[in-house]
Design brief:
- By secondary structure, the chain is an all-beta fold.
- Strand 15 and strand 16 form a beta hairpin.
- It starts with 8 loop residues before the first strand and ends with a strand.
Length: about 500
């Protein structure tokens, strides 16, 4: 590892025998572990052979993402947004992106993509593992321009080329005369929002309908089992397989392809659904009774309610883990021979990351609707957040509320385009910005004290709704510059004293 013990990292990726991380300050990739094929040290090397490949990059090359495959490593360069790989190259899993399209590698067991060297990508995923006592691998990337998935590397099971091959059973016929692979039959121009390369199969989340499409090895239904009959017998796949029994139109927000099973995070109910090999309950063990389970009690089941919500999922070789949404805990199930699925309950103190609720500095400017990953970090579950700016300190806060900007029908007319925020509960009202601070538009039922401008404690409030305004609003007057403006209310309105509540003093935002 070419980093110190105190080096901060922003991302990590672990494979069977090596690990890589993205350093936070320098944005370089540091790897350590097994290095027979230069999968750990080959980023800067130049030595190449028929079985290994070095990328020959400067050690200062900046990356935005890293992915450790079976015996190779890939990163997404930050400057030109291309994919660079190094390590085992037996099937061109490291160098096959821009090699002539078609069969390639030793004994033509690989597939090369034939893409221009300058092709830009938005994501990368390196897959592979031990296949017949030989380390095999393939690489997939999500192209930036047309948002399609391109793969290269080991292709015996069509994990690299099977996306747009004829849908159904495909690949090489096995010894008993059956095909053990599955091809997706998608148009070459199909757009995706995510990609994940497993040991011998590949999956992606389609952009148009948000469903999961997989291709590659399918003996345990890891590619086609999402919609298969929900069971664990030969009607689903081979003995020990599990099918999820979901509708083909099920929408997902994330996918993770494991050793021989696949898991996805459903969009509607935010639960984890898995299918494929289930020998150790890596597919079905989330809801099974907690404790030992699976073949010869080699697995561990989590015993969670079926409706448990998750914010992230990761499928390993023979186990699965997810991050629960409510209490932000890691929960795992599946093979447990090394306690990889049984998360220590007493030894780990779970701390909920501040995420979007963390205050952050902002130099100037009004609050605005913005994606959370541009203001508060790329935290899970951050959608449609907005920033509240305190004009005194120039600080803001990301919240999970939608942008509450004034709209003509929701407030008091098209001229009411400003907003008063109650800093205690992050709610507020629309206000017209004028000289005397009058004409505050407030939802019915909300306490009037939350509408007063900073430093101007209310003394009286007009208590009768004006018939000229929307019945869901109430006209309020406040003290501004030492003058009680309640006299501006119509004469037929009554006034009454209102207790001052300093705890509800809001900030004013234009």
């Amino acid at each position: 590892m070419n980093a110190s013990k105190t080096t901060p990292f922003s991302a990590v990726s672990a494979s069977e025998q090596h690990t890589c991380g993205l350093t936070k300050a320098a944005e370089t990739i540091a790897c350590w572990g097994y290095d027979k094929y230069k999968q750990a040290s080959g980023m800067t090397g130049t030595k190449r052979s028929s079985r290994s490949y070095c990328a020959g990059l400067p050690n200062t090359t900046k990356f935005s993402a890293v992915s450790a495959g079976g015996s190779h490593t890939c990163g997404l360069t930050k400057a030109d947004e291309t994919i660079a790989c190094w390590g085992c190259d037996r099937d061109k899993e490291a160098s096959g992106m821009n090699a002539p399209k078609g069969k390639c590698g030793l004994q033509d067991t690989g597939y090369c993509a034939g893409l221009p060297a300058a092709t830009k990508f938005s994501a990368v995923s390196a897959g592979g593992g031990n296949v017949g006592n030989i380390m095999r691998g393939h690489t997939c990337g999500l192209t930036k321009e047309n948002e399609t998935i391109a793969c290269w590397g080991y292709d015996k099971s069509k994990q690299a080329s099977g996306m747009n091959a004829t849908k159904g059973k495909c690949g090489t016929m096995n010894l008993i005369g059956k095909y053990s692979s599955y091809c997706a039959g998608l148009p070459a121009a199909t757009k995706f929002s995510a990609v994940s390369a497993g040991e011998q199969h590949t999956c992606g989340v389609t952009k148009a309908d948000e469903t999961i499409a997989c291709w590659g090895y399918d003996r345990e239904k890891q590619s086609s089992g999402m919609t298969g009959t929900k069971d664990m017998d030969r009607e689903c796949g081979s003995s020990g397989s599990y099918c999820a029994g979901l509708p083909a139109t099920t929408k997902f927000s994330a996918v993770s392809a494991g050793g021989s099973h696949t898991c996805g995070l459903t969009k509607a109910d935010e639960t984890i659904a898995c299918w494929g090999n289930d020998e150790h309950k890596q597919a079905s063990g989330m809801t099974a009774p907690k404790g030992k389970c699976g073949h010869q009690d080699t697995g561990y089941c989590a015993g969670l309610p079926a409706a448990t919500k998750f914010s992230a999922v990761s499928a390993g070789g023979y186990h699965t883990c997810g991050v629960t949404k409510e209490d932000v805990r890691v929960v795992c199930w599946g093979e447990n021979n090394y306690n990889q699925a049984k998360v220590p309950e007493k030894d780990i103190k779970w701390v909920k990351e501040p995420s979007c609720l963390t205050a952050h500095p902002k130099k100037s400017g009004p609050a605005s609707c913005t994606a959370c990953n541009t203001t508060c970090g790329n935290a899970p579950g951050c959608n449609r957040h907005f920033t509240i700016v305190d004009p005194k300190t120039n600080t803001g806060t990301c919240t999970k509320k939608e942008c509450p900007f004034c709209k003509p029908k929701e407030c008091c007319g098209a001229n009411h385009k400003h907003y008063v925020i109650n800093t205690m509960n992050l709610e507020g009202v629309c206000v017209r910005h004028n000289d005397d601070c009058t004409s505050v538009c407030m939802p019915r039922g909300q306490h009037p004290a939350s509408a007063w401008l900073p430093g101007h404690a209310p003394r009286r409030v007009c208590s009768k709704a004006s018939p000229t305004l929307n019945p869901t609003t109430t006209l309020i007057a406040s003290q501004c510059r030492g003058v009680i403006r309640c006299s501006r209310c119509p004469r037929w309105w009554s006034t009454r004293p209102l207790r001052q509540q300093n705890a509800l003093m809001p900030t004013y935002m234009t």
